[in-house]
Amino acid sequence: MTLRAERTRNEMTEPRVLPELRLSAETGTIFVHELERELFLEAFEEEDDDAPVTFRAHLWDHPDLPRWLRFIQRGPTQPGFLYGCPLDSELGTHNLQVLGYNRRTFGTVSQRLVISVTPAPGGDAPFQAEFVVGDRNVEELLPEGSREMFLRGSAGVWDRGDLHVINVTSALDRGGRVPLPIEGRKEGVYVLVGSHSPFSPCLLSAVSPQSRSRCQRGQRPLASCYDTFAPHFSIRWCALSLRQVQPIPTTPGPVRGSGVLEEGADFEPPSPAEPQGMVPDFLVTLLVPLAVAALLLLLLGHLMCCRREGLEKRDLQTSDLQLFHHSSIAGDTRELRAMAGSRDVPRPLSTLPMFNVRTGQRHDPMGSARAPLLPP
Length: 376
Fold this sequence. Notes:
This protein is α+β, with helices and mostly antiparallel strands. Among the domains are: 104 residues, Immunoglobulins (Immunoglobulin-like, Sandwich), CATH 2.60.40.10; 118 residues, no CATH class. Strands 1, 2, 4, 7 and 8 form a five-stranded mixed sheet that branches. It has a four-stranded antiparallel sheet with strand order 10-11-9-12, covered by helices on one side. The longest helix is centred in the last third of the chain and has 28 residues. This is Dystroglycan-type cadherin-like domain-containing protein. It is a single-pass membrane protein. GO terms for molecular function: calcium ion binding.
């Protein structure tokens, strides 16, 4: 057995585990974690930097990711990204497992990610603008350098410096279509930017009714900041949307912990619930169906027994001529049946058997007949 085959067999039977990684995320702000291929290639002891590596991510002991988190990897030679924007309901700790597969040696490397979601110090941004970038894919805007470049362009449009990216979403997740296989065609990205400062006059003019009317006619909206993002990003100004979020006061809820009791702490079980009487529920469950069944039974009995016409009512509603005609037909039918039952004539020769299928005997059809069909 060669050394390469022996190493492949060992990697398949003994998956390696990377050290645990702890990350932090804030509500109302984009969270991005890049799965570096180099780190996993070192664990694989792979000398080739172009070795194909695919990643899979899910909750620890669960098959899916949290609902606020997404994962994307464009190809086995490119890094993977975990990204998303946690909400207030996602406060706490999320344990994830990342699996890296070496498609060349079939090795597996596992890593545990612990993401702690904390509330944003300044709260959610009340002024939010969503831009549509038409010449980018979602993984191209996830690196920190690309996001910083986009924020510099947004600062020129907004005339403010306290901007941050809230979320990045692929146009395919918004119902967009896969672009044609033409060079330079991208799927498009929705970038949500927030600030505590009001919108600039340029943004307000871009979403005005006059601008929407010009967009419907295929013209540019009334905005003077077209070239702010150029030449790095191509913004679809007709798809720009502005929203103003009002802060909602909420009471702080329980924070998810690790589930392990701290050393020296006492366990306080919840107080037992008070016993509740089940007699009213039992009576409602039993008496309501019985009452409905009794009503249906009474209705059915009324329809079957009290709504019948009867022979007397039917005869009174029928004319005497029609009754006489019906009775005469019935009497003639009975008389014909009585005459047919009392006659004694031989059976027609066409009904007599000539060959018995079971015994194979042949019978003379003329033997049992009293008279021939035709005279001699």
